Amino acid sequence: MVLILSRSDLEKILTMKDVIEYVEMAFLELQRGTAILPMRATITLSEKHGWIGVMPAYLGRMGSLSTKIVTVFEKNLEKNMPTIMATIMLNDSETGAPLAIMDGTLITAMRTGAVCGVATKYLARKDSKNVGIFGAGVQARTQLMAMCAVREIRKALVHDVVKERAESFASEMSKILKYQ
Question: Which one from 12, 17, 48, 68 is the annotated catalytic residue?
């Protein structure tokens, strides 16, 4: 039986610390040559200002076989919809049988943030307390969450071309992460 996980299901079980750990393990698999990650196949729909991409991946040591289908439609903002949406299918790496179909939008955002978390873990000073964020979108949120997961961030400065977005971001994130 295939497990179906919605965004709300994933919000209950995913933590940024866990995602950072898995992203770091995936980077190690890439370095060791045990990952298969071909170029994504895409179709561009110029007249609709969008594209769809299919991204299969296999992590040998983790035994993870999955495919992400992602769409990016720039005009979705005008429709009050996300510009990036994704679905992920997890398959049994021994048989190919489908195991789970998951909302991939949250996973994609968290994975993108987690890459920043891994970089912060290894490249930022251990005593870093302040961060600067350019842009107040979805990726800014997960990147700040990731930096806070690996460092004791006390102050974050955010800049966005739309001042109100930066102010909203600062208000929202300061409540979630308890920083200035």
Answer: 68
Distance CA(50)–CA(47), nearest Å, equals 8
82-94 residue pLDDT tens: 999 999 999 999 9
Q: Which DSSP string corresponds to 145-176? A: HHHHHHS---EEEEE-SSHHHHHHHHHHHHHH
| Same domain? 78 vs 33 | yes
Is a pLDDT exceeding 60 seen at residue 171? yes
Give the residue from 84, 110, 136 where a domain finishes: 110
Task: Check whether residue 77 and residue 142 sit in a common domain.
Answer: no
User: Could you tell me how far CA 94 lies from the centroid of its own chain?
Assistant: 27
Nearby residues of 139 by Cβ (< 8 Å), 6 or more positions away: 109, 112, 113
Q: What is the pLDDT of residue 16?
A: 96
Number of Cβ atoms within 10 Å of the Cβ of 160 = 18
Burial of 94 (0-12, 13-18, 19+ CB in 10 A): exposed
Domain span at 32? 3-110
In the annotation, is 75 catalytic? no
